Amino acid sequence: MTDKQSISSLAETWLQWDQDPKTRAEIEHLQSTNDVDALELCLRNRIEFGTAGLRGRMAAGFSCMNSLTVIQASQGLANYIKTARPHIASNGVVIGHDARHNSRRFAELAANAFIALQIPVYFFTEFSPTPMVPFGINYFKAAAGIMVTASHNPPQDNGYKVYSSNGAQINRPEDHEIAQSIRENLEPWANAWVELKPCDYLHADAYQNLVQPYKSHIKEYTRSTVTDWKPLSPFVYTPLHGVGGLVLPELCDSLGVDNFVSVPLQTKPDPDFPTVKFPNPEEAGALDLAIQTADQEGRALIIANDPDADRFAAAEKVDDKWFLFTGNHVGVLLASHVLDSLKNNGDLSKSVFLTTTVSSGMLDKMAVHEGARFQETLTGFKWMGNVARDLEATGVTVPFAYEEALGYMFPSVCYDKDGITAASIFLAAYAKWKSQGLTAHAKLQQLFATHGHHETLNNYFRSPNPALTAELFRGIRSGPFLGDMQLGKFKILRWRDLTEGYDSASSDHKPDLPEDSTSQMLTLWLDGGVRFTIRGSGTEPKVKFYIESCGDSRENAIEAVCETFLAILKEWVLKYTPSMTHASQLFTSSGHVLDMK
Length: 597
Hints:
The chain is an alpha/beta fold. It is built from 18 helices and 25 strands. The protein folds into three domains: 7-204, 3-Layer(aba) Sandwich (Alpha-D-Glucose-1,6-Bisphosphate, Chain A, domain 3); 212-450, Alpha-D-Glucose-1,6-Bisphosphate, Chain A, domain 3 (3-Layer(aba) Sandwich); 452-595, Alpha-D-phosphohexomutase, C-terminal domain (TATA-Binding Protein).
């Protein structure tokens, strides 16, 4: 495949390689109707393999998620392990899948590629939560892992998530090396399309052998953090039509937690997600049915997983209104519980807590306050998982890491975000807080009183193409802001540019985090306790921003956050890219509305 191939040649290549009747028919239809534009869209460019593997819409063509692109990715990954990691190839790979459309089929096609090279496959025959794959890599001491899932994306999407031998998501340069191997193994191998059948290299009992150790590991870790569950209040649980409902209720029963109800219409896996517009607990309306169930049952606590159960969310009724905790709220609540548990066992000086540069700075204050250490990473668990592994190699422990997008990692269980473990630990913490006469919301206010009130505003501007995003950042960098160290009414205290590798605060002006010239990312510290990051999204047509202010009161923090957003909008976005659109209403984490009409 080359950029110089004609579209008719690309279509013929597709039809030579693709044996899926549905996707073949899609390309044949476009050929017969001479829809050149549609053919160009789906065939000209390949779906990008990055640090999260693959993710996209399920449809025909090299640019989409389908059986052929999964086969190609699997052949590339299998060949990479066989040639670049021959000393561990015989350890095998773990392959799991969620309950989405085509997930089981994609997982089977992936297994064929490894079996072709005589690499053992620990195959999950059952729907699985995503964190069971990284847990399984360490449990089986495997060479790699694949999870077929699109997490909380819409029903028409699917994905292919890849883990390295350390149980963490692949990161650079491994992702680039695998991508190159994929490009060198595009033509389907002889066994690529065969039905997956029993053989010496297929361990089809992997899920059955793993699910109990996974739950037992979580149970043991959870019980080490709390001594009494009795004060735990009744609660409502929703897996949002995903796989969490296949694991968490049984885990709760084994912990002696039985005072909960699951949302009836959302309990069983359903790849169409019929009761939610977006199956993401961060999205407005996603927890409406759970709230309705809780009101009917007279319960004041809701916990939720996203469809592949790697994320966790919580809501609590406060003064007869539902308070939805943000990812930062849950992150610091879980961290406080873990810190308390570790503090009871002695010295915290060799414990390091992690979060990303777009998450709250409150964890830093909490860790240092308790005598622990803190480290910031780039965005995503591909960084936090690998940084945790690197830190542990130096003799320290990483008890907990989180990012603001509802992701929480407990390395005692696995090196990726884990919504099942997070739910279990949150319930343990909730029981402890109740024994102290506190709700989760009250505990959060207690933490704010100690470490300052932190208010966040995370949202995005819609950018229809990378050129517009580049234009915005070019304007920012060429403007007077860095020279004057001023943005609107705010004095800039520190300017860090991870795209160009610059940090005004360091003696050599080198940043404290890895630079990446292929992405756009700026972080500024302003007077008044404000820090914000603005970055171009690598997967969506968006420029995302993350603003946080720490103030003496909620009102002061909200005011600083809102003024910062207005400065970004006026001084940067409207000045350099007036065509870039933004939401008409933006909400701070405590529900304050910033009206932009």
